[in-house]
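User: If only I could read backbone structure tokens as easily as an amino acid sequence. Those tokens are not coordinates but codes from a learned vocabulary of shapes. Could you go through the record with me and say what the backbone is doing? Here is the record:
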Amino acid sequence: MYAGLFLSPFILVFSLSVFCLAHGWLPEPAKPPARTVSGLQIPSGIAALKGKEQLDQIRPILEQSGVHGEINFVRRIAAEDRLVVPISVPGRDTEVSIHLPSGTAVITEKSNSFWNSVVYLHKMPGPHNVALRGNWFYIGIWRWFADATVYGTLFITISGIYLWTALKAERRVGFAMLAAGALTFLGMVVALAF
């Protein structure tokens, strides 16, 4: 019971985020103007690096710019000698466009609504771009909470099934609930397949 009470806020966040993802009615706040930061110390050869090595070199540039958060990916625009780095935190998306020769960065921020923040937490750490995920300290912590929620839910489910089988008086109701759940699940699968 206490484990279920502890995990219920996490399960509620995941449930709300799935609802927002499914219905797609997330309001967009106004976008503030871009700002430019100059005089950045940019390591030579940063554009040729890949993966974690490139992130390790970009992180100090972002700190010089006053930008913190989870780096989603790094896109190189060779023709303009630029790196574009989208960064996310719950509640804000930031795009940093770094012009390598001049040592300047144009920073564009967009605030997100509460519901967008909940959806962001639902997607993170996520299976996409796994080599880069969790590069911000707080998303690393969120990864542990997300894993704990999944494992806790599995434990509660398995222990509930065990307790249900141990209590003979509850078996008939339990079978009815299992059948209703299985039919609902199969109905959803058939509806999505056709």
